[in-house]
Amino acid sequence: MPLFSHHHLRSLLQRYLVRAGTGSDIAQKVADNLVESSLKGHDSHGVTLLPRYIRAILAGDLNPGATLTTLSDAGPIVSFDGGHGFGQALGEQAMSVGIARVRQFGVAIIGLSNTHHLGRIGAWAEQVASAGLVSIHFANVAAPSAVLPFDGLRARLGTNPFCVGVPLQNRPPVILDFATSAIAGNKARIAWNEGRAIPAGCAVDANGQPTTDPAVLMTEPLGALLPFGGHKGAGLSLICSLLGAALTGGETESQQIPPRAGIINNMLSILFDPARLGAEERYSQALLAQVNWVRSGQEGRDVQIPGEPELRAYARRQEEGIWIDDVSWQAFVALEALNT
């Protein structure tokens, strides 16, 4: 597997995107977002997605020049359509609007529909937390259903991410960010590329039998992912589609979306200023006290707060570099032959 510095990958990805018709500034923003995801240990949402993005542009399922269209503006509630543009750029812009509205109203609800892949949703929670604000995000994946409902036989749900960001005083924020499936779909793709099994309890084959073979998620006849935590994950996945897509004007799984070249997301984000809740300065100390309490008395065990695994991976991969699996690297090589 090739190993690259993050500096090299930022330049490489930006160059490929520009060749495919993306403006230089947007291309750099997308490249940086993908590299940052890989640096933080999420290869499933990182640089290996670049070939798929290029294919989506060539197929017309990703519009590299799309901008946000305002669907509704009601003060603290704003809704946008992304026009299948780069989620890395449009997500950042939508959160910037949300932050500005929180400054004005104390709270903001931001709808974002029909945008291409938003990437790691934690990036948007980090953006909001850096402004000292709390955020909650419900996202769905407008794609063929890939996840079973609880006790179900047929896939009816998406991997639909859920994310919460909470800023801490003089510390990195708490960033809880996960797919509502037992593992993200792209994590199964990486496992398939690398020829390794996925964890038990994550998937079933086309006959509904438990399996650790990621091929059942990549090749016909397709199996399905399981929700995390049984009925809890399945319920949260449904909520992500109801709030993230049905309420924002995006596509839900019920529309039986056919396979597509791109990755289309919808998201509802709730942002608010914790200082306006009435706890005054006490809330900052209470947040820190609770985080410290979770770690206390654990007899040397490595208890981690949500967001810390990403920080550890970031520090390590900045020094060691980013691995790209051989299958994904061959997809990069194949880009050289594309007439873009």
Features:
about 350 residues, alpha+beta, seven-stranded mixed β-sheet, three-stranded antiparallel β-sheet, about 40% helix
Give the secondary structure arrangement, pairings included.
Layout: E1 3-4, H1 6-19, H2 24-39, H3 50-59, E2 69-74, E3 77-81, H4 87-105, E4 107-116, H5 122-129, E5 134-142, E6 161-168, E7 171-179, H6 185-194, E8 203-204, E9 210-211, E10 224-225, H7 231-246, E11 264-272, H8 282-295, H9 308-320, E12 322-323, H10 326-335
Parallel strand pairs: 3-4
Antiparallel strand pairs: 1-12, 2-3, 4-11, 5-6, 5-11, 6-7, 8-9, 8-10
Derived structural class: alpha+beta
N-to-C SSE string, H for helix and E for strand: EHHHEEHEHEEEHEEEHEHHEH
Strand content: 15-25%
Radius of gyration: 20 Å
- The helix tally amounts to 10
Instruction: Report low-confidence residues grouped into runs of 5 or more.
Output: none
Q: Major β-sheet, in short?
A: 7 strands, mixed
Percentage of residues in helical conformation: 25-40%
Average pLDDT reading: 95
How are the strands ordered across the major sheet? 2-3-4-11-5-6-7
Task: Categorize the overall geometry.
Answer: globular
Rounded to the nearest angstrom, the distance between the terminal CA atoms is 26 Å
For the secondary structure, the number of strands is 12
Structure description:
The protein is built from 10 helices and 12 strands. It is an alpha+beta fold. The chain has a 7-stranded mixed beta sheet with strand order 2-3-4-11-5-6-7, with helices on both faces. The protein has a 3-stranded antiparallel beta sheet with strand order 9-8-10, with no helix packed on it. The chain has a two-stranded antiparallel ribbon with strand order 1-12. α1 runs antiparallel to α2 (24-39).
